[in-house]
Amino acid sequence: MKALYATVFLSLQFLFSFSSQNRKVLIIGIDGTRSDAFQQANTPHIDALLGTSTYSYSSWHTGITWSGPSWSTILTGVNWNKHGVTNNNFTGSNFNQYPPLPTLAKQIKPNLNCSIVAEWDPLIDDITNASWNRMVKVADGSNFPTADSAIIELQNPDIDLLFAYFDKVDLTGHTSTFSPSNPLYINAIQDVDSAVGKVLNALYARPTYANEDWLILVVTDHGGSSFFHGGNSNAERQIWWIASGDMVAHQQITQADPGTYSCGNNTVFDTTCVDLSLLKTSPVHADITVTALHYLIYDSGINPETRPEWNLDGKSWLINSTGVNELAEDKNISVFPNPVEGELTVSGLKFAAAKQMSIELFSMDGKKVFSTVPVSENISINTESFAKGIYLLKAGKVSKKIVIE
Fold first, then answer.
1. What is the pLDDT of residues 336-385, one digit of tens each?
2. Radius of gyration over every alpha carbon of the chain, rounded to an integer in angstroms
3. Do 276 and 355 share a structural domain?
4. Within 10 A of 9 (CB to CB), how many other CB atoms are there?
5. CA 301 vs CA 22, 46, 139, 298, 376: distances in Å
């Protein structure tokens, strides 16, 4: 079990001299959260993301279910045979050859502005060669101080990548069992969801949010059985995976277990225990960095999946990537005026009308405020009765950000 840390280290170097881009990434890591317990818990803030997400409750851990190797894979996009981490001591790490996400992204865009807020010190101290601009250590299990520190980072107008890590669920599992029937464990998940809600609200409140394109990734590293993890049971390996944004397909993925490279032995990397065909369509840990990296450098034309010098193991879940089939929907939908006061016009709905797809408008807390099935390429929506704010318009798997004034 990871030790508690009380030291707070802030390197808040608010020297906002970096160039910024509209395409930005927020990664939220929630340690030790079983998929079945996550689904059972009341998590309205994370659930509100699902309507604009590729997500899965049947994502599977394909490596060693300790936090060290798990987060190393999540942050580098490679499996443990490459990054070298097989335990929580980070012995044998190879981050110089396989660096974390910020370093990879800055090889293409050197001026990207990247921050990490973490309750577990090794994510900052031991996952090296990471090129974070700011690193914030928060007391382990602190939850809302972590959210508050993440909110400070989001006040940086030039931030491009933020990774915020919460550890309370894992700590609660170790002290009271990783079990969906354990109310303490469920409450810990719900507490973290409340903290995540604070972070998301701060994101949506950014003065420039309406003109930014954020990809939000939420993931856990492993589950648990009894008071422990580190083995290959379903309770330890079945996890969940969320990617929310305009450039991912909005769909739930239910997938069979593709297997594990550890094959019950945490010292031998064995490819014979993994179904590679299932792996191609299963969201897994290594996909987090590859998807985030692809998003951050998208306008460069580089796909991280196929860049040989990076030799990444994950795949990108962005639309039109090599790892995911291209969507068939009409992507030429236009919305005007935006911002809008009163009548909103949506045009270019040829595909949606032909397929009798619903056109839906959601508030940022996930509530559906409007729905219709178009019979032509154009519809009008009267927004006068809606509260002012930012909304998401969905047409099948296409989404648009709307500002109602």
1. 888 889 999 988 887 777 667 788 888 877 788 999 988 888 899 999 99
2. 21
3. no
4. 12
5. 16, 31, 40, 6, 35
For the beta sheet containing 389-395, the strands, ordered from the edge strand earlier in sequence to the opposite edge, are 368-372, 359-363, 389-395, 398-404
Q: Does 181 share its domain with 280? A: yes
CATH number reported for the structural domain that contains residue 47 in this entry: 3.40.720.10
Q: Which amino acid is at 349?
A: L
Please state, in angstroms and rounded to a whole number, the distance separating the CA atoms of residues 24 and 374. 32
Report DSSP state, residue 294. H
Residues 186, 41: Cα–Cα separation, whole Å: 6
Helix (H, G, I), strand (E, B) or coil at 72: helix
Q: How far apart are CA 339 and CA 210, in angstroms?
A: 9
User: CA-CA distances (angstroms) from residue 9 to 29, 103, 134?
Assistant: 19, 21, 10
Residues 115 and 32 in one domain: yes
CA dihedral 232, 237, 238, 243 (to 10 degrees): -160
- Judge contact between 263 and 269, C-beta under 8 A: no
Q: Give the helix ranges, DSSP H, for 116-182.
A: 122-125, 144-154, 168-176
d(CA 378, CA 345): 7
Tell me which residue of 235, 247, 16, 52 sits closest to 133, measured CA to CA: 16
Task: Tell me the C-alpha to C-alpha distance, in Å, between residue 358 and each of 138, 155, 244.
Answer: 44, 36, 19
pLDDT tens per residue, range 188-234:
999 999 999 999 999 999 999 988 999 999 999 999 999 999 999 99
Strand 398-404 relative to strand 134-137: parallel, antiparallel, unpaired? Answer: unpaired
The first and second tokens of residue 123, run together, are 């994510």
CA pair distance 252, 182, nearest whole angstrom: 27
Q: How many domains does the chain have?
A: 2
Q: Which of 199, 193, 187, 194 is nearest to 147 (CA)?
A: 199
Query: 324 with 318: CB under 8 angstroms?
Result: yes
Same domain, 214 and 354: no
Which residue shows structure tokens 């981050």? 95
If asked whether residues 165 and 68 sit together in one domain, one would say yes
* 262, 63 contact by CB (below 8 A): yes
Residue 322 lies in a domain: no
Query: What is the spatial distance between Cα 110 and Cα 113, in angstroms, rounded to a whole number?
Result: 9
Q: Is residue 314 part of a domain?
A: no
Task: Name the one residue in this structure whose structure tokens are 């996952």.
Answer: 127
Model pTM?
0.84
